[in-house]
Amino acid sequence: MKQVDCKSLKAQGLLELEEKIKDKNIVLKIIQVAGDKASDVYVRNKKKASENIGLQADHLLFEDDIQTEQLIEVIESLNKDDSVHGIMVQLPLPKHIDEYKVINSITPIKDVDGLTNENLGRIVTNNEGLRPCTAEGVLKILDEVIGLDSLKGKRAVIIGRSKLVGLPLFHMLMACDATITMCHTKTENLKEITNEADILITAAGSKEPFIHSSYIKDGSIVIDVSTVRNLETGKLHGDVLYDDAIKKASYVTPVPGGVGQMTVLELMNNTYKAYQLQNKKKQGKTQKTLVKS
What we know:
Layout: H1 6-21, E1 27-33, H2 37-53, E2 56-62, H3 68-80, E3 86-89, H4 99-104, H5 117-124, H6 133-145, E4 155-159, H7 166-174, E5 179-183, H8 190-194, E6 199-202, E7 221-224, E8 228-229, E9 236-237, H9 242-245, E10 251-252, H10 259-292
Parallel strand pairs: 1-2, 1-3, 4-5, 4-6, 6-7, 7-10
Antiparallel strand pairs: 8-9
Helix pairs in contact: 1-10, 2-10, 6-7, 6-10
């Protein structure tokens, strides 16, 4: 069993990407509405990663009284701007903003978070598209730990059914021929289900860690997606009690320093992929024009 250091995996991935984008002018627009302190940290991490590899990331920060339609107008102007290759909206948005409308106003070919209906539909139908960064990051970790071919026939249990993680991962793991059980807040006998998991992926976002060794099958792989800040101590934690879980699991991702590292890497990869897809589309239009003339 390969023990993966996610920080090293991210660093290596960024080095490889830096080489690919050398001498290319790739632009990412990060849209944020003020008001969420955790979002400030995430945006800084994304900007720092972009700057380190020579990718231009512009931070568009709006006051928290901005309305849905105003945000959509900003996004529509970026959709039309050929110099912009990636658009992402930092979540969560204030409650008065219609998140669904805002996300789906991004043209799918620039949707580097992979959250538009079209890109999620491409996952369901196993077609090429931009995939949610965290879900793709989880898959990269599994590929490093055991290899995607080894997922065939494995029992995977996912806790959490969000569009960011649970739903896309369900279909991505299905495409790898794993057998998946999706758990959520209404699931009964959770511990019985997780004890059957060869691979346990948890994205519950619990206020306190609750997955300990009694939830875990011997030798399983545990991927802790959640990152929650304890308001009293200021420390970050996930859903898993790492020191206890590692007694039974063969591999457990830490928090911090685990899946979050991969999310940033996959945002960079998605931005480069969006750039490639847009160039391919432009070349297709040029060829059609030449044929007509």
